[in-house]
């Protein structure tokens, strides 16, 4: 029996196998929700059980478009009216929001995640638009990153502008993404407002139905009107500590628990500066690969040829900073050829704290995907060894392949193992780096969705793991050797507190100040390396050098 999904019309060209449990009464076919839409909805945790049940007799979507295609048929709809960057952004945002569920549905078509973006658009939105140009790609990156970061704030405004407070909860996932894109473009990007309204209305009509387009039109116009009159419904920062944190969390679009934590650790002003940093578009640093004989002047020459603006790093000789032009660098093949890699200077400075020298035997305990391993290997100049340990086989494979590409594989041995189970009688090193799994709270500007995936409960779990891994890593250090503990977090519980607890358990270790390895602005009172987004305009990172006496 051909079944028509009455729910989301997200996947108009798919055919479905659906088990209908409702009975046909008086010849009326019950309205059904296809398994695909149910899966999407379930993963969004937004549906009530009422929505998943068969209710009425309609057999068409609200556009009147059947939600099935003729079996095996691929009637392509070409819609050149739709701006491709918005269509791609909406699909990417669906993938971020619905995670594995949505990606799996896309892959069900037998096409992996490497498939091109327009294929995704076609399968999920139901039409083809023109291919992305470089400018579109830049816009996709900007819109997807920005909309993801500002999600809490955008949802607050969408909710405030809807008459019914439940509207946002029951809203179709795709409609919500289109609204967020429109709100973000109007509020945070300097885009011509009426074009934004027009384009997002067209997208909603083509991908969903006319009614969805009308809703987008009404809400975006209302937003424009309120913005022009400076009447946006902003939360007020007053009340008790919790209420103030809630308001700040909405204004700066972060989870409440993070805001409370930062106000405690940093004070209000610094916490606000930190959130502002997390919401800015990150620049990137590029490290040249000396192991391949490619030098910073070589990279500068290439960037000038490609007309990519750059600045030389003030902290590291092998690094340059760029704000734009990453696509151009990728297309020129500079990364694919192994001439350079993307690495934040904050991570490069951790390697400076390790201080790898030709002849060293180094163990990198949590090595994959290998950013620090490769930088350390390039410092060895072909002499010495790095044992790169990681529990994640896939990520370790990437490390191995990249090491080959970077021509520094001769000094690297990969070891697929859980550090906690590694035999310390077999493996010992002069320098042991533990770049521990952490909350990543120092890299929130680069990883737009991370703030929404981390929970307060994760912190305790991570702290316990960090303690256990520190104990295991310490067993691998030769007497007279050094243990370096690092994170990409700015949270004292994951940094200074872990070292203090470790030193109590291990009196055979003492702190070796980082001031011999990095410049004074990066050295804390306790002798640790710490980079701060607010102070140094770099990602947040931490490293402690601990000398073993016996
Ligand atoms: C912060 S990442 C390391 C990043 C890496 N050092 C770099 O610079 O590219 C943490 C790594 O720890 C690994 N890991 C987590 N638990 C582990 C364990 N018990 N044993 C070994 N590796 C582990 C994860 O698989 C992950 O690759």
From TrEMBL:
Composition bias type Low complexity, residue spans: 51-71
Pfam family, one: Methyltr_RsmB-F
GO biological processes: methylation; rRNA processing
Catalytic activity: cytidine(967) in 16S rRNA + S-adenosyl-L-methionine = 5-methylcytidine(967) in 16S rRNA + S-adenosyl-L-homocysteine + H(+)
Protein location: Cytoplasm
Function of the molecule: Specifically methylates the cytosine at position 967 (m5C967) of 16S rRNA.
Positions of the UniProt region annotated as Disordered: 45-77
Similarity section: Belongs to the class I-like SAM-binding methyltransferase superfamily. RsmB/NOP family.
High-level lineage: Eukaryota, Viridiplantae, Streptophyta, Embryophyta, Tracheophyta
CDD domains per UniProt: AdoMet_MTases
GO molecular function, one term: methyltransferase activity
Database matches in SUPFAM superfamilies: NusB-like, S-adenosyl-L-methionine-dependent methyltransferases
Catalytic residues, chain numbering: 488 (nucleophile)
Binding site for S-adenosyl-L-methionine: 366-372, 390, 418, 435
Name by which UniProt lists this protein: 16S rRNA (cytosine(967)-C(5))-methyltransferase
């Amino acid at each position: 029996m051909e079944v028509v999904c009455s729910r989301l019309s997200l996947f108009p060209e798919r055919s479905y196998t659906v088990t209908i449990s409702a009975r046909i009464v008086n010849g009326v076919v019950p309205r059904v929700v296809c398994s695909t839409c149910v899966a999407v909805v379930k993963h969004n945790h937004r549906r009530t059980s009422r929505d998943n049940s068969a209710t009425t007799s309609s057999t068409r979507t609200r556009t009147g478009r059947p939600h099935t295609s003729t079996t095996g048929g691929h009637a392509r709809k070409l819609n050149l009216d739709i701006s491709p960057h918005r269509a791609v952004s909406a699909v990417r945002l669906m993938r971020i929001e619905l995670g594995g569920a949505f990606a799996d549905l896309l892959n069900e078509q037998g096409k992996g995640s490497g498939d091109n973006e327009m294929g995704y658009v076609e399968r999920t939105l139901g039409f083809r638009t023109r291919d992305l140009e470089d400018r579109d790609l830049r816009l996709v990156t900007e819109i997807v990153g920005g909309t993801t970061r500002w999600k809490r704030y955008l949802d607050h405004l969408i909710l405030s502008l809807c008459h019914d407070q439940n509207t946002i909860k029951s809203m179709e996932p795709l409609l919500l993404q289109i609204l967020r894109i429109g709100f973000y473009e109007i509020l945070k990007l300097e885009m011509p407002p009426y074009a934004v309204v027009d384009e997002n209305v067209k997208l909603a009509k083509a991908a969903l139905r006319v009614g969805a387009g009308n809703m987008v039109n009404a809400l975006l116009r209302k937003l424009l009107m309120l913005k022009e009159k400076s009447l946006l419904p902003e939360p007020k920062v007053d009340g008790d500590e919790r209420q103030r944190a809630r308001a700040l969390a909405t204004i700066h679009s972060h989870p409440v628990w993070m805001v409370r934590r930062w106000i405690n650790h940093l004070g209000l002003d610094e916490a606000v500066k930190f959130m502002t940093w997390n919401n800015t578009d990150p620049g990137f640093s590029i490290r040249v690969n000396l192991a391949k004989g490619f030098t910073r002047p070589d990279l500068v020459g290439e960037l000038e040829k490609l007309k990519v603006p750059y600045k030389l790093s003030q902290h590291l000789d092998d690094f340059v900073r760029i704000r734009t032009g990453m696509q151009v660098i990728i297309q020129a093949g500079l990364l694919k050829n192994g001439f350079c890699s993307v690495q934040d200077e904050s991570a490069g400075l951790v390697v400076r704290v390790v201080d790898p020298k030709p002849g060293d035997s180094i163990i990198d305990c949590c090595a994959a995907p290998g950013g620090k391993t490769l930088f350390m290997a390039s410092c060895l100049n072909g002499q010495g060894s790095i044992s790169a340990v990681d529990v994640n086989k896939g990520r370790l494979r990437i490390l191995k392949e990249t090491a080959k590409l970077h021509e520094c594989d001769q000094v690297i041995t990969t070891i697929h193992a859980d550090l906690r189970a590694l035999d310390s009688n077999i493996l010992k090193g002069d320098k042991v780096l533990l770049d521990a799994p952490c909350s990543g709270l120092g890299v929130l500007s680069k990883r737009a969705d991370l703030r929404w995936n981390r929970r307060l409960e994760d912190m305790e779990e991570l702290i316990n793991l960090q303690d256990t891994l520190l104990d295991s890593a310490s067993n691998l250090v030769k007497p007279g050797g050094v243990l370096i503990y690092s994170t990409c977090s700015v949270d004292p519980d994951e940094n200074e507190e872990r070292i203090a607890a470790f030193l109590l358990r291990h009196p055979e270790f003492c702190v070796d100040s980082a001031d011999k390895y990095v410049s004074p602005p990066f050295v804390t009172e306790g002798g640790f390396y710490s980079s701060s987004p607010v102070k140094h305009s770099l990602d947040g990172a931490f490293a402690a050098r601990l000398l073993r006496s016996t």
